[in-house]
């Protein structure tokens, strides 16, 4: 092995790897070339070469989870309680 090269071994989700390989093949790049390009940009920019942030869907899911955590839990285990709850127009949604 070339002394100027270092071998990397990583674990990555199989489906993600296969999907990425399809994209790389379509654009004519190998995995090695793609990782090398990523590392070069990482060094050149002094950090990740793209924004790392939640998608709008992830932000919406988090907001929903937080809102649900503050809501009281209703006992809707019997039919009458469920009907009363569904018909209560005074509830604050």
What would you note in describing this structure?
The structure is a single chain. The chain is an all-alpha fold. Helix content is 56%, strand content 0%. The protein contains four helices and no strands. It has helices spanning 14-27, 31-45, 56-69, 79-87. The model has no long low-confidence stretch (mean pLDDT 89).
What does the overall shape look like? elongated
Give the helix/strand class. Answer: mainly alpha
Distance from first to last alpha carbon: 64 Å
Helix and strand pattern:
HHHH
Tally of DSSP β-strands: 0
Name the helicity range. 55-70%
Mean pLDDT: 89
Main sheet record? none
What low-confidence regions span 5 or more consecutive residues with pLDDT below 50? none
Radius of gyration: 25 Å
Instruction: Indicate the proportion of strand residues.
Output: under 5%
Number of helices: 4
Chain-wise SSE layout:
Blueprint: H1 14-27, H2 31-45, H3 56-69, H4 79-87
List keywords for this structure.
93 residues
A few lines on this structure:
With 93 residues, the protein is an all-alpha fold.
């Amino acid at each position: 092995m070339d002394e100027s090269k270092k071998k990397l071994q990583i674990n990555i989700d199989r489906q993600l790897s296969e999907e990425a390989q399809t994209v790389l093949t379509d654009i004519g790049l190998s995995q090695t070339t793609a990782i090398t390009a990523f590392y070069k940009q990482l060094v050149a920019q002094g950090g990740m070469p793209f924004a790392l942030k939640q998608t709008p869907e992830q932000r919406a899911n988090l907001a929903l989870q937080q809102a649900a955590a503050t809501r009281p839990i209703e006992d809707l285990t019997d039919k009458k309680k469920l009907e009363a709850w569904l018909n209560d127009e005074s509830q604050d949604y």
